[in-house]
């Protein structure tokens, strides 16, 4: 599968409930109220000077926002992942595109408009960028156009976003108070923020009309220094939820290169740029039908030595269901060992209890927990 501009719009609609995806946690409010959608800006937008568009919404008794999961877009239906029984909840506003949710500040990074046009050299889908604070029931539109993606930093006090310009795609850091700076240029769209909140990993890939040297990079927030940490070119393969997976201590990064015409790769790199190597499967697992390094989603266990993985559905003998496998990461042999098949599911949501259990979503519409060995 490729993240090509031609297939991006239709792919985004069906993504989460197909081909073994992953998601974050989110929440809702009772009576649905559809807000007016923003009109697309016709002039290039300057990210350093903006006037937020504020819209007040009527609040109602709220669920536990800490446990919010927004599974798909466009739409207004979310899940509350309560331990004693997950349930659905209707948001008071329509989400054109969901970016990220912070359980720290109970705020959602989203777009009111569905991204129905492309921008930048690779003609990637763009939209507005809006912050919805679920505690105060306030919606602030920060950028009216040209935003590709956005993610919260762990502290909830700042976020990163990718801005499309005529010449390139820029990775920005921005505080909730409006301080903004460019972290990197010529970035592509496989990226993530370190658990420490002090670095961002991102790829540069061929196929997006950028004059770049491909690879996996890390930029340090304090120094602004950028380092190449692994020599790899994903070439737009995989899906739009692909990301570099950070170790819990923010010292290592794993990148899965899957879905393209080449053999899949699973690369482990040191975040400081001191080395990288490919991971393989232990020989004892080669006869297991579910064992593969073509991984579509990874949760790095809290011990730093195990990976909970979701594999490409082509490795499964059931349509749309993907192997959920727990591996030990053996750095000495540079391999995944002691694999254990836990289930076959289409979507891994995220931790229920880190290191103990995980939320998963089924095609039947059920959200359940699966315990780790």
What topology emerges from the helices and strands here?
Elements lengths: L7 H7 L6 E2 L30 E4 L11 E2 L5 E6 L6 E9 L1 E6 L4 E5 L5 E3 L4 E10 L4 E15 L5 E7 L4 E7 L4 E6 L5 E3 L5 E6 L10 E6 L5 E5 L14 E2 L5 E6 L7 E6 L5 E3 L1 E2 L13 E6 L5 E6 L10 E9 L4 E11 L1 E7 L3 E5 L5 E5 L2
Parallel strand pairs: 1-27, 22-26
Antiparallel strand pairs: 2-10, 3-4, 4-5, 6-7, 7-9, 8-9, 9-10, 10-11, 11-12, 12-13, 14-15, 15-16, 16-17, 18-19, 19-20, 20-21, 23-24, 24-25, 25-26, 27-28, 28-29
Main attributes of the structure:
373 residues, 2% helix, mainly beta, 9-stranded antiparallel β-sheet, 1 helix, Methylamine Dehydrogenase, Chain H
Describe this structure in words.
The chain is mostly beta strands and 373 residues long. Helices cover 2% and strands 46% of the residues. The chain contains one helix and 29 strands. Strands 2, 6, 7, 8, 9, 10, 11, 12 and 13 form a nine-stranded antiparallel β-sheet that branches. A five-stranded mixed β-sheet has the order 22-26-25-24-23, with no helix packed on it. The longest helix has 7 residues, at 8-14. It is globular, with a radius of gyration of 20 Å. It starts with 7 loop residues before the first helix and ends with a strand.
């Amino acid at each position: 599968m490729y993240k090509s501009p031609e297939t991006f719009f239709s792919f985004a609609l069906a993504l989460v409930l197909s081909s073994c995806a992953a998601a974050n946690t989110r929440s809702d409010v009772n009576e649905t109220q559809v807000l007016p959608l923003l009109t697309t800006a016709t002039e290039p937008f300057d990210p350093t000077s903006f006037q937020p568009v504020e819209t007040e919404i009527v609040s109602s008794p709220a669920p536990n926002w800490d446990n919010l999961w927004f599974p798909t877009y466009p739409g207004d239906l979310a899940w509350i992942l309560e331990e004693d029984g997950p349930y659905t909840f209707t948001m008071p506003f329509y989400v054109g595109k969901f970016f990220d949710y912070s359980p720290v500040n109970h705020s959602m990074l989203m777009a009111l408009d569905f991204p129905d046009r492309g921008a930048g050299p690779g003609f990637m889908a763009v939209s507005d960028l809006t912050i919805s604070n679920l505690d105060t029931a306030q919606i602030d539109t920060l950028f009216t156009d040209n935003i590709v993606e956005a993610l919260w930093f762990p502290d909830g006090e700042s976020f990163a976003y990718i801005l499309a310009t005529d010449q390139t795609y820029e990775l920005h850091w921005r505080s909730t108070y409006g301080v903004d700076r460019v972290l990197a240029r010529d970035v592509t769209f496989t990226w993530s923020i370190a658990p420490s909140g002090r670095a961002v990993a991102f790829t540069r890939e061929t196929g997006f009309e950028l004059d770049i040297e491909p690879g996996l990079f890390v930029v340090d927030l304090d120094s602004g220094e950028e380092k190449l940490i692994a020599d790899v070119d994903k070439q737009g393969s995989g899906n739009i939820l692909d990301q570099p997976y950070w170790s819990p201590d923010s010292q290592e990064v794993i990148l899965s290169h899957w879905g393209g015409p080449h053999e899949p790769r699973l690369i482990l790199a040191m975040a400081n740029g001191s080395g990288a190597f490919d991971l393989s499967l232990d020989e004892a697992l080669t006869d297991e039908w579910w064992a593969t390094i073509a991984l579509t989603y990874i949760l790095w266990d809290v011990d730093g030595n195990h990976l909970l993985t979701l594999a490409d559905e082509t490795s499964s003998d059931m349509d749309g269901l993907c192997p959920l496998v727990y591996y030990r990461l053996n750095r000495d042999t540079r391999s995944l060992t002691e694999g254990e098949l836990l289930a076959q599911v289409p979507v891994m949501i995220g931790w229920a209890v880190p290191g103990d259990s995980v939320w998963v979503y089924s095609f039947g519409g059920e959200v359940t927990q699966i315990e780790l060995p």
